[in-house]
Amino acid sequence: MRVAIAGAGAVGRSIAGELLENGHEILLIDKAPTAISVERVPRAEWLLADACEITSLDEAALQRCNVVIAATGDDKVNLVVSLLAKTEYGVPRVVARVNNPKNEWLFNEAWGVDVAVSTPRLMSALVEEAVSVGDLVRLLRFSHGDANLVELTLPPESALAGTRVGDVAWPQDTSLVTIIRGSRVLAPSPEDSLEAGDELLFVAAQDREEQLETLLSVRNNV
């Protein structure tokens, strides 16, 4: 998979290193000469250019990319890169970094963003996830379909503890994608039973989150 990353700072380089380890082809783009540190990510391609300029993106052959990641420290730049990647080059997947949580509402389909990653929001969500049992925690927002990646740790008193996944009447527009049980990561099947303490990850429409939380947290009266 070919991935272009706009922004070769610490965040962009870190992402590039991880993706290279997973066998992907990486292009790092930055307009600051001081950011071009080929020795730090030697297996990546590097381009000294302004990712907000069409001529630069033509040189980067953005139309060949499967994914574009807008990872600069400037939200305005990340929005422009996302919009150009999607509308001018038809990139299938655009991921954008949100630096200021107040700007998060802008990072949506209208600006070409498929997935918006807000570091402050993600950090607070991970703190909540670590200490919350029975509360739905939003981890990640997907622009398409107004859906979110959410997590809930099943409390011991939940009426669903011991229930098979296939027997649960899940809310519409929600999908259980992973069960984390201790050190195990399970791809849920209809025959799997839910257990107290399971970390459940869902992709869910935002307007179904409250219904999902109520379903999972309802107390067993027995």
From TrEMBL:
The reply to whether Ligase figures as a keyword in the UniProt entry is no
Q: One Pfam family this chain carries?
A: TrkA_N
Keyword flag NAD: yes
Q: Which residues form a coiled coil?
A: none
Membrane-spanning ranges: none
Protein keywords? Ion transport, NAD, Potassium, Potassium transport, Transport
Give start and end of each RCK N-terminal domain.
1-117
Q: Which residues form the RCK C-terminal domain?
A: 137-218
Top-level taxon of the source organism: Bacteria
PANTHER family, per database record = POTASSIUM CHANNEL PROTEIN 2-RELATED-RELATED (PTHR43833), TRK SYSTEM POTASSIUM UPTAKE PROTEIN TRKA (PTHR43833:SF5)
Query: Would you tell me the protein name for this molecule?
Result: Trk system potassium uptake protein TrkA
Which source organism does the UniProt entry give? Streptomyces fragilis
